[in-house]
Design a protein that fits this description.
The protein is of the alpha/beta class. The protein contains 37 helices and 30 strands. Strands 6-5-7-8-1-9-16-15-10-11-13 form an eleven-stranded mixed sheet, sandwiched between helices. Helix 2 crosses helix 15, helix 16 packs antiparallel against helix 18 and helix 24 packs antiparallel against helix 27. The chain is globular. About 1% of the residues have low confidence. InterPro entries: Ac_transferase_dom_sf, ACP-like_sf, Acyl_transferase_dom, Acyl_Trfase/lysoPLipase, Ketoacyl_synth_AS, Ketoacyl_synth_C, Ketoacyl_synth_N, Malonyl_transacylase_ACP-bd. Keywords: Acyltransferase, Coiled coil, Phosphopantetheine, Phosphoprotein, Transferase. It holds the Pfam family Ketoacyl-synt_C. GO terms for molecular function: acyltransferase activity.
Length: 1008
């Protein structure tokens, strides 16, 4: 029978569970509420507006200075026969320059397709890239993400131009080039974005509606990032005439918002995009927040006075909805960027709605400023709202509201009496507010079709001051572009922002390295001051490559091999700078100390000259420096594909290859040094001494059977080998070399007893299988790692160093780039000679150099690897998060593309039979080159390139702009040339001209 106590206990348990469930539900509701209302951060902007406003800062300067960008229609914009019939109202506009220019190659678009591509789509591609760069986002990293694209676009003048030009101006790319859906779709395709991608056409409110949709998509979790904005170009006079027929255009070409003389608006061109992210994500990712979008609303006029007539009630409701969505009070709105078209009907209605919702008197008589960017740049229609939004963001950032143009007398149908509204004609200070009340602004945009939009904008949260850190001795600042010319142009632009004022060098380097995409053509600047960078960057922009600058083309980099130098590279003071300034280096050396009988760290910091001449000291110290260098390089993303070690350097190589533990490696190097110390002065052998650089330069093939036995602390090189070859070297070097007795009789038969002793000391050593290839300088061949027994290390002491053989074996296996790991480059000349011997292109880089500042020297090595194409972990190089700063955007290498302007390719077609016969008469070694040239000619024909030289042999056809349609045409051209029935997928199966040429060579050879 249940007792009262048991009933009460069950009841209490149920109450506890119910309370917990209620708390959980309340927490979920609160999370959902926060998600639905979370502020959206504007983290980047890009624009192209009239008045040469090529970016947000240029736009700000233009409107701050009160520039009127309206002009008559440029002569080249309207055909002469049509210009004569333009009405006076249609003769005015705010235009962009050079809308026919486009960097088609950057976006992988062929000239043929570019000519059919609506310049609005071209603008969107370029401005989107610039906006992402402004945001400090690497476009490459967005591939596969749920980034959304929301684009306002309403006119289609380019299609009208094509129709006017006749059927000869139309091809299969006309549809994808002019249909509105392909604007955002092409951007999503190029960047590999998986989020929503849509065109918004609500006429004049399109771009602000696009921003509203982006906000909703971000808050719902549908998008993780969004690009939103709009574009508008005026390319055909008929569109302007249609608008003029509505009596909406100003006959004298001036947009006088809210003015008594207002008589219509002026059409304008432009493109603007903002990069948006949820505030919580932006803060977590360290993004620069330019402003916040607190809320937005969209509605329609409904049944108003007419289809194109505005509705005051709808506008009032829109404003209230936006305030509610943003959860802010009307009295806190300090600035409204109005729609402000300057029409006698629209302006009074807009002011009436604003008065009703925002017009109550403010505490302390605080004003609410009304602005209209249309007075500067005209009405950008589908891009009008985004122009207003970018203006507001810039006003918040610069703490000033620009004045309105063409305003003298208020429209008599408007009364601002008793309201907080002011319409300034000069800039109004708008300082950031102290305390809890941030500055707020509203942006309005109304579509002629009746769709209205409003966005509430708040100033960015006050950024915390960047954490103080010690300035590094040097900075590596990388710059890159798709072409060498663009790279040099970009370097000049970087230098320009430092004169006279600009961002700090550290923030510049961080943004350039971590927050920019790295392209094929690269330059890396190792500098210690803004002045030094400006000097070097300007020199590089002029076509020079001064010391301190490393430049190169990062194609597929060659396999990187670490080469560890032997004894003799040491110098007093080596490692001290890195010990003091690089924690990773110091930690790796300390780990070595844990397995050593003496402190390597102390020896580096305190050793006098004599200590580092003692083999038993220097060999473990050199090992420690090499391991610490590898650890530091590894933290920066630099890892070897294979390793080679010279003499004692083989121990470090074996450890890095994974064949030895650190304890075993240290044990070997300590024993080896101790035993070899006893050989000093005990042997007399014939050797050669000279400056390493002089020797390696002069020896050439005479070193085939000669090995480097040692390099002493004065930088002299000691060679051993057959006496006949040594005599040849003495004769070749003349007075720079001589036979002499040396203190080290290393790597010779005289070492046999000591080598046997080392083997006995190492009995029981059990190596492991190597995790990366190691090329032995004992055997000259690749090792598995299991050969590194006690007997091997004895041979390492007594056998000649077969360095060249090991390097040649690595080259045969694919090694192309070599990084010498050690305190001074003593093997680099040999490495270069080995590459020359095998006619193999490659790069030889070294880490440190005697008596040179170590960190800058190491950065130059990193710069050389970076420009070669090796991946660098710049996050680790700049561990202290720096603020994202505004750097110059990509320097587009534009060419003109327009209907019927395609350049004629330099190509001729030979009779198939004669061409095939010609190829077959060529020597076998020349056939592939001839076929490859023909393939490049045919590809250039299809792409409508001016020359086959513009078709790289190793570049995938798809990257050149060959789509599925063009692939069929490439196949047709090749079939016509060869007379062969080629598969329909041949251009996909063999994606480069070189691959196609080899395939055709096989086909033609098989039927001989």
């Amino acid at each position: 029978m249940t007792t009262l106590e048991e009933i009460e206990a069950k009841y209490r348990s149920r109450l506890v569970r119910a309370a917990a469930a209620l708390q959980e539900m309340e927490a979920r509701v609160e999370r959902m509420r926060k998600e639905r209302t979370e502020p959206i951060a504007v983290i980047g902007m890009g624009c192209r507006f009239p008045g040469d406003a090529r970016d947000p800062e240029a736009f700000w300067q233009m409107i701050r200075d009160g520039v009127d960008a309206v002009s008559e229609v440029p002569a080249h914009r309207a055909p002469t026969r049509e210009s004569a019939h333009l009405s006076s109202a249609a003769r005015w506009g705010a235009f962009l320059s050079n809308v026919d220019g486009f960097d088609a190659a950057f976006f992988g678009i062929s000239p043929r397709e570019a000519c059919q591509l609506d310049p609005q789509q071209r603008l969107v591609l370029e401005v989107a890239w610039e906006a992402l760069e402004h945001a400090g986002l690497v476009p490459q990293r967005l591939a596969g993400t749920t980034t959304g694209v929301f684009l306002g676009m309403s006119t289609n003048d380019y299609l009208l131009l094509g129709a006017s030009a006749g059927t000869e101006a139309r091809d299969a790319h006309t549809g994808t080039g002019t249909a509105h859906a392909f604007g955002p779709g092409r951007l999503s395709y190029f960047l590999g974005l998986r989020g929503p991608s849509m065109t918004v056409d609500t006429a004049c409110s399109s771009s602000l509606v696009a921003v509203h949709l982006a906000i909703q998509s971000l808050r719902s979790g549908e998008s993780s990032l969004a690009l939103a904005g709009g574009v508008n170009l005026i390319l055909h006079p008929s569109t302007t005439e249609i608008v003029a027929d509505l009596q909406a255009l100003s006959p004298d070409g001036r947009c006088r918002s809210f003015e008594a003389r207002a008589n219509g608006f002026v059409r304008g061109e432009g493109c603007g995009l903002v990069v948006l992210k949820r505030l919580s994500d932006a803060e977590a990712d360290g993004d620069r927040v330019l402003a916040l979008l607190r809320g937005s609303s969209v509605n329609a006029d409904g049944h108003s006075a007419g289809l194109t007539a505005p509705s005051v009630l709808a506008q009032q409701e829109m404003l209230r909805q936006a305030l509610a969505n943003a959860r802010v009070s009307a009295k806190d709105i300090g600035y409204v960027e109005t729609h402000g078209t300057g029409t006698p009907l629209g302006d009074p209605i807009e002011i009436e709605a604003l008065i009703e919702v925002l017009g109550a008197p403010r505490p302390n008589d605080e004003p609410c400023v009304l602005g209209a960017v249309k007075t500067n740049i005209g009405h950008l229609e589908a891009a009008a709202g985004i122009a207003g939004l970018i203006k507001v963001v810039q006003a918040l950032r610069h703490e000033s509201i620009p004045g309105n143009l063409h305003f003298t007398t208020l429209n008599p149908h408007i009364s601002l009496q008793g309201t907080p509204f002011v319409i300034p004609t000069k800039p109004v200070p708008w300082p950031a507010r102290k305390g809890s009340r941030p500055r707020l602004s509203g942006v309005s945009s109304f579509g002629m079709s009746g769709t209205n939009a409003h966005v509430i904008v708040e100033e960015a949260p006050h950024a915390e001051a960047a954490a103080a850190f010690e300035e590094p001795a040097a900075i590596l600042l990388p710059i890159s572009a798709r072409t060498e010319a663009a790279t040099r142009e970009l370097a000049g632009a970087y230098a320009a922002i430092l004169e006279p004022h600009g961002p700090g060098l550290n923030a510049m380097a961080f943004t350039a390295a971590v927050r920019r995409q790295h392209h094929e053509h690269r330059a890396a600047f190792v500098v210690s001051s803004r002045e030094q960078f400006a000097r070097l960057a300007n020199a590089f922009a002029r076509g020079e490559t001064p010391a301190g600058v490393v430049a190169g083309q990062a194609t597929a980099p060659g396999a990187l091999t670490f080469v560890f130098s032997g004894q003799g590279a040491q110098w007093i003071g080596m490692g001290r700078e890195l010990l003091a300034g690089q924690p990773v280096f110091a930690a790796a050396l300390a780990e070595c100390d844990a397995h050593a009988p003496f402190s390597l760290t102390r020896e580096l910091r305190e050793a006098a000259d004599g200590r580092l001449n003692q083999t038993e000291i220097v060999q473990p110290v050199l090992f420690g420096v090499q391991i610490a260098l590898v650890a530091l390089l590894s933290s920066w993303g630099i890892e070897p594909v294979a390793v080679i070690g010279h003499s004692v350097g083989e121990i470090a190589a074996a450890y890095v290859a994974g064949a030895l533990s650190l304890a075993d490696a240290m044990r070997i190097v300590v024993l080896r040094g101790r035993i070899m110390q006893r050989a000093a002065g005990s042997g007399r052998m014939v050797a050669i001494t000279a400056s390493p650089e002089q020797a390696m330069q002069a020896l050439g093939d005479a070193t085939r059977n000669v090995s480097i036995a040692a390099i002493n602390d004065r930088g002299s090189i000691v060679l051993s080998g057959p006496e006949r070859e040594l005599d040849v070297i003495v004769e070749r070097l003349g007075g720079r070399a001589k036979k002499l007795d040396v203190d080290y009789a290393f790597h010779s038969p005289i070492m046999a007893p000591l080598a046997d002793e080392l083997a006995r000391e190492l009995v029981g050593l059990v190596p492991k299988p190597a995790t990366r290839p190691m090329y032995s300088t004992v055997t000259g061949a690749r090792l598995t790692g299991m050969e590194l027994t006690a007997a091997y290390w004895a041979d390492n002491v007594r056998q000649p160093v077969r360095f060249a053989d090991a390097v040649h074996a690595a080259i045969d296996a694919g090694a192309r780039d070599f990084l010498e790991i050690g305190p001074h480059p003593v093997l680099s000349a040999n490495l270069r000679q080995c590459l020359v011997d095998q006619s193999t292109p490659g790069r030889v880089v070294s880490t440190l150099r005697r008596a040179e500042p170590e960190f800058p020297r190491l950065l130059r090595a990193l710069a050389a690897l970076y420009t070669r194409g090796h991946a660098v972990n710049f996050h680790a190089l700049y561990p202290m998060r720096q603020p994202v700063v505004t750097l110059p955007t990509y320097p587009w290498q534009r060419k003109p593309y327009w209907l019927n302007r395609t350049p004629e390719p330099e190509t001729t077609r030979a009779d198939p039979a004669r061409w095939v016969d010609h190829v077959r008469t060529l020597p076998a070694a020349e056939r592939e080159a001839e076929i490859e040239r023909a393939v490049r000619i045919d590809v250039a024909t299809v792409l409508q390139l001016a020359s086959p030289e513009e078709v790289p042999a190793d570049r995938p056809l798809m990257e050149l702009g060959v789509d599925s349609l063009m692939a069929v045409q490439v196949r047709h051209e090749l079939s016509a040339r060869t007379g062969e029935a080629l598969p329909a997928t041949v251009a996909f199966d063999y994606p480069t001209p070189k691959a196609l040429a080899r395939y055709l060579l096989e086909r033609l050879s098989s039927v001989e």
